Amino acid sequence: MAHRWGMAVDLDRCTGCEACVVACTAENNIATAGAEEAARGRAIHWIRVERYWEGEFPDAKLKFRPVLCQQCSAAPCESVCPTYASHHTDEGLNAQVYNRCVGTRYCANACPYTVRYFNFYNPSWDKPLHLQLNPDVSVREVGVMEKCTFCVQRIKAGERQAREENREVKDGEIKPACAQACPATAIVFGDLNDPESQVSRLAASGRGEKLLEDAGAEPNITYLKRQVTA
Amino acid sequence: MTCMYGLYDHPAAAQRVYTQLKRAGLKDGDITVISAEPFEAFGFSHRDHSLILFRLALLGGILGFLTGVGLTVGTERAWPLVTGGMPIVAWWPNLIVIFEMTMLGAILTTVVSLLVTGKLPSRKRSLYDVAVSDGKILVGVPVTGDAEAIRKALDFEAAAIKSAEFG
Amino acid sequence: MSKVTAEKMTEDLLRPLLKTSWHFYVLVVILGGIVSLGVGAFAYQVNQGIGVWGLNWPVFWAFDITNFVFWIGISHAGTLISAILRLVNAGWRRPVTRCAEVITAFALMIGASFPIVHLGRPWLFFWLAPYPTEREIWPNFRSPLVWDFFAISTYLTGSVLFLYLPTIPDFALVRDKTTGWRHTVYGALALGWSGTTKQWHRLETAMQIMAIAIIPVAVSVHTIVSFDFSMAPVPMWHSTIFGPYFVAGAIFSGIAALIIAMAALRKFLGLELYLHPVHFENLAKLLLMMSLLWGYFVFNERLTTWYGNGPSEIGVFWATQRGPYAPLFWTMVICNFVLPLCILSFKKLRTITGCVIASIGVVIGMWLERFLIIVPALSHKFLPYAYGNYRPRAPEILLLIATFGAMGLLYTLFSKFVPIISIWELKVGEQPELTEPRETRDEAATLWRTHP
Question: pLDDT of C355-375, one tens digit each?
């Protein structure tokens, strides 16, 4: 049976440390924008940790939510791309084909989660940081949209490994950079088509909810609500 | 061939000359009336009743429609990519493109038909006089048969009668 | 009012083609300079990246798409005047049609340049066109941007042809009245037109068909442009009213642009005998009606949003009504609704000057309206962490100014080389009513068969 990749993010475990953000940036060749451009709103964070405050001091509560591409089954970003740069793969991923992107930025506007980012300039890395670029991931050029791919390079590598060894992909074997880096193991990645996988069991959990479900995009990331203590 | 023509100041004069030419036995198709503006109120403007342009526009619309269907449905089937959970052959969006192609077909066919049936662009010299651009109306015929009868008909209204070689 | 003879008409309307004053050269140099600045700004952006603009995450569209929608909207002037008035046989359209059709053609060209200008990789714009490529991939017909491509191409083709066809007899007139290079060039443009009754009949039939065809195309074009917004799940974009709302707004801004263009032509080319105050009056009444219609649509849209109180939608609503975009919003309301109503409702104020003031207000107001549809919604979508704001930077402002410069320049050049008023159509309008037939009924019956 074909895979259908999904994720579960446990908001109870998330401490807001942003290790996932750093890991993603390193794994996926995301350039830093610099202070000036970041102030202009050009920073790229394929995964970002949203912080919300609730209440007033001294009873203020802080909530974190890592937001990344939800790989929606009815993704509004896919239908509006004129060049098929954004489309849905057989394995349930929302693919971004950089070579086809002409940079209309319609997909970014259509995304209810605002998880798509644009290369306003050509990305650059000051020496010696250019040496740490991941050879498995392309470097995007100016004018092209990009977003979280569920570390598709790791998925492909894992599937290739399994094929060579003549076996199925084991649950938990493929970990996107964010899932790998999270110290609280708040991010769980796996095959939603496998009812025994951890992500499927978490997705069926009573704490599970989808982000912006009413937008109708059918996201494939289940957020597990914080457990409220008495 | 040699053509004989008169230049008249008023469309009513041209109309009367036309009637005389018909009485002299000339056919509709031989008589040319040229003016710098159309005169819809007069009989000589109403010889041509063909609805061919409307029919060709309709045909062009149908061709455009078929092109639109072929383009959208054909290419969607040729490289099927799933986008937004929509079907591979997405009818609602396709209808928009099909509509535009239909209208484009009708418009282009109308223009091409106009050019072809109006014999535009015309390279060879046909019956014409620059006095037409000064407001004169030209009524002329090719001279075959009785030249005197033609001259008499053209002379029915006072005008400059000329003859020249064309075509 | 004294009747203008056909000779005087020809002389007056061909004069701009045959005589050039120093005003023309000064205007071309100034406008050309402005356009060059815009081209330079675009070249800078292609070289450096869209980062030189004020766009950011999450406001990915601002001035670029505002300009696009605005100029496509302006292009709806020609269709209304030419096509609709032609079909209802409104005689007063005659001196106005070509001015209007020219606005359509050039506004479309300017508007249609923005889908290319706004791209991150504009050198690949042709990937939106359907053509067989070695990549074997075709455009995504589900995308409103591809619908835009088809709609605008069809409308542009139709409008340019709609403009060109009735110009053919006028080109023939210029050909006959000139010598030298003018005679050759205009002769080529006239395609050897003589003016036989058959050609006239065919031309008028073709114009009739084109008029019938171009109206649904025009309606579809701005509806499809509105689909760029209504197809996206963005608060206050995802509205079913956008189709008719945008079409009404387009016709509204188009009439305003036409009034301004006509007033300028009347002054600079001395066309007082041809563009009468009554033409401005009639257009002003149309403008007033469109202003009321615009107000009706805005009221509809905003009442539904406010009443529905959807969490994200209401945020966008208040951002325009009372928040950071309020000054622009209320300026827009004054320019589009209050000012036209105050000026155009009173006959005494419906002078040419009054109409031009109201029209300039409408042009400004309609540009603001497009901006206020795009930017507040993008800066206030669903997730509060993803709220943002926007400020334009110099290249975008230069581009905006350059579009107006381009319109002015193209219009100036056109009125220099082509009679801006359709001479033959004007002459037809002046034709007297036929009062006495000269044949008896029997003669007519035998000589004229009305059916083949």
Answer: 999 999 999 999 999 999 999
This prediction has a pTM of 0.94
> How far does the CA of residue C157 sit from the closest CA of chain A (Å)?
22
**Interface confidence (ipTM) of the complex:** 0.93
pLDDT at site C3: 60
Architecture in CATH of A5-224? 2-Layer Sandwich (3.30)
Chain A hits for C380, Cβ within 8 Å: none
Q: Find which of B83, B103, B123, B141 to mutate to test the C interface (most C CBs within 10 Å of its CB).
A: B103
Same domain for B154 and B112, yes or no, is no
Full residue range of the structural domain in which residue B72 is found? 52-117
Residues of B with CB below 8 A from A74's CB?
84-85
What's chain C look like in SS3?
A: CCCCCHHHHHHHHHHHHHCCCHHHHHHHHHHHHHHHHHHHHHHHHHHHCHHHCCCCCCCCCCHHHHHHHHHHHHCHHHHHHHHHHHHCCCHHHCCCHHHHHHHHHHHHHHHHHHHHHCCCCHHHHHHHCCCCCCCCCCCCCCCHHHHHHHHHHHHHHHHHHHHHHHHHHHHHHHHHHCCHHHHHHHHHHCCCCCCEHHHHHHHHHHHHHHHHHHHHHHHHHHHHHHHHHHCCCCCCCCCCCHHHHHHHHHHHHHHHHHHHHHHHHHHHCCCCCCCCHHHHHHHHHHHHHHHHHHHHHHHHHHHHHHHHCCHHHHHHHHHHHCCCCHHHHHHHHHHHHHHHHHHHCCHHHCCHHHHHHHHHHHHHHHHHHHHHHHHHHHCCCCCHHHCCCCCCCHHHHHHHHHHHHHHHHHHHHHHHHCCCCCHHHHHHHHCCCCCCCCCCHHHHHHHCCCCC
Do B56 and B113 lie in one domain? The reply is yes
Task: Tell if the CB–CB gap between C197 and B115 is shorter than 8 Å.
Answer: no
Q: Do C143 and A80 touch (CB under 8 A)?
A: yes
Minimal Cα–Cα distance from A87 to chain B, Å? Answer: 5
Question: Where along chain A do its domains lie?
Answer: 5-224
pLDDT digits (tens, 9 = 90+) for C13-47: 888 888 888 989 999 999 999 999 999 999 999 99
Judge if B106 and B146 occupy the same domain.
Answer: no
Q: Which of B44, B101, B111 sits opposite C197 (nearest CB)?
A: B44
Cβ-defined contact of B93 to C147 (cutoff 8 Å)? yes
Chain C residues in contact with B34 (beta carbon < 8 A): 194-197
